[in-house]
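Re: the request from the purification team.
They wanted to know what the chain is likely to look like in 3D before they choose a buffer screen. I agreed to run a prediction and write the result into the notebook, where they can find it.
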Amino acid sequence: MTDTAAPVRPSPLAEFWRYFSENRGAVIGFWVVVTLLAIAVLAPLIAPYDPALQMRDKTLLPPGWVSGGDWSHLLGTDPLGRDILSRLIHGARFSFFIGFIVVGIAASGGILIGLIAGFAPRWLDTVIMRIMDIILAFPSLLLALVLVAILGPSLINAMIAIALVLQPHYVRLTRAAVMNELPKDYVTSARVAGAGLIRLMFVTVLPNCLAPLIVQSALAFSNAILDAAALGFLGMGAQPPTPEWGTMLAEAREFILRAWWVVTFPGLAILITVLAINLMGDGLRDALDPRLKRS
């Protein structure tokens, strides 16, 4: 008799990449995000000019490849003579910084509250979820705007406000995942083995709830960039001369008919970044949700 070797099961990372790579849009989004992240990290090295440098003799220059443009300013200059390409490159830093901080605050607080709601007595669970429902009843941008108005216009306050607005989504998702896991045998076995409440919450149950939370984080990342840009455009987020993309749009809106490039390129930067992150989020959902996997 000849022994037949058992099939080698691929590693979790290899299996994840196999499902993720089946979504071409997600792969494209992933590489766009990686490229933008590299640009953000290397901004001081690759930006041709200081983003705050004002060249008063070069105000509203068109892009270098447009008639009348200057090739030393590939994407043109703004009303104060600042190089738009340099400001976009440095703006990528602020956008990713905003995304990471907002998702970090929203996820850590939301997951903790969601775990408490999932393990809490019924009355406390009801109180927590009704509070989350009240927060979700308000339009997210309007609520963030009110919070920034109370705290004061600044980039830090805008990030705090956006994180608080996004937090209920994590609470509801975590609580639903916990309620789905609690009846399972491995949780019962952990209880019988004497696992305490903290161990049950963070060691036993939470790791099995991470897949939907990772997908939610990708979507929250893009929402954070959009909301921060909206607050910046309204003058309630990053303040001039910070090269944040929403603030750049706000500074240039009165020149939209005279100089299309001052609003087009910051708008495209927001569009490409958010679209790439959302495409990557779709791929994460396909790769991490067992119901969407094909054998």
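For the purification team: The radius of gyration is 23 Å.
Please add any questions underneath this entry.
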